[in-house]
Amino acid sequence: MFDTVRKFARALRVPSAQDREMAYLNESRDRIDLEYRMRQVDRGMFRKTQF
């Protein structure tokens, strides 16, 4: 019973900025693409507020 509730809660969880950053970095195709993406993350690509 509790496992079902836990799975449901995980399915509705909104990914954090760190989760989105890691997913973005994991999609890189090669070292150059990874370094480019790392620079974008360092510049705050995922940390900007939406106001």
Automatic annotation (TrEMBL):
<dbReference type="Pfam" id="PF12086">
    <property type="entry name" value="DUF3563"/>
</dbReference>
<dbReference type="InterPro" id="IPR021946">
    <property type="entry name" value="DUF3563"/>
</dbReference>
<protein>
    <recommendedName>
        <fullName>DUF3563 domain-containing protein</fullName>
    </recommendedName>
</protein>
